[in-house]
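Entry 12.
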Amino acid sequence: MQQRFVIDIPSARLDDIRARVDAFDFDDLPDAGGWSSGVGLADLHRLVDHWRSRYDWAAQQAQLNQLPQFLADAGGQQLHYVHVRGSGARRPLLLLHGWPGSFLEFARLIDPLAHPERHGGRAEDGFDVVVPSLPGYAFSARPASPVGPRATAALMHALMTALGYDRFFVQGGDWGAAIAAWMAHDHPQACRGLHLNMVLLQAADVKPQTEAERAWADARTAMNQAEGGYSHLQGTKPQTLAVAMSDSPVGVAAWILEKFAAWSDLPRRADGAPDLWAAYDENLLLTNIMLYVATRSFPTSTWMYRGRVLEGSGMFPEGSRLAVPTAVAAFPDPVFAPPPRSLAQRTYNVARWTNMPRGGHFAALEQPKLLIDDLQAFAAGL
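Predicted 3D structure (tokens):
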């Protein structure tokens, strides 16, 4: 049974966060080389200064509470989710975030998807929109042990079934893409359509064949060598990382901010550093960070990486070919570049492929209209 949920972070928790942020001393932090060696300290300092002097969590909390939120048990796991019933046909649509994102990523998509008539579209194209927090993220309960994307796919299927949806569309990027793909693999009868803005999984027996596919695979290997340290750490030793992060809100902010800078489609400054502020504002970034810090969920958010290792869900089994109609919104993610269509379609039933002109890893935040338009066009085509 679902119950309404209202965000209400206790004042004692907010006071503790504020004290820890205020106590952080940048003078004790040497610079190893700006963004080339991790988070850029000048940009982190700008974010922390805003946190200290201008950020208003109460206002952000009130804005989030305008979304209809619920808690429900699904497969033995308590999940937090936003649920907006749409106009028109009210086709069910599950939107899945990843790390280091949150349900906040989809806030600007919900009303245009549920009520397109308010945004220049047709009421009959509306969706019933469900946006959960992944297990161990934000206001979803902590799982008893690390849970991977395949097990999470079963939980998400259980949630949609509990809400009365036997067939639905599912969209995801980052972990959301892996979870959505496993839903299409394990529960194809429930997936009316699969929409991905990141192709994270393929069948174990699908190997690069063409020159373009081999070039992509080589580039991905090189990029993983340069940018994949966080994933290896979170997949092998998340508990040690959690000890440090639990004690430092600024540490969590730095860990997350680095990924927003590295993974987003951003212009570059004269010195080659990413210009975060061309795409994001401090309030948005801090509210996403607070959904990890205020809820004490950073430690369990990394468990998805450990869970993937433990359940061996980094690839589909050999011979897997997904029958569910699939759309790929191929945004120019600077780290997780989309594969060639020829490679993806040897695992997926690719019904639509859109090479996006701009936008990176956090597509719902960076280019919400492009993602909305592609989703609507895909659903209309089915």
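Annotation: The chain is about 45% helix and 15% strand. The longest strand covers residues 77-84.
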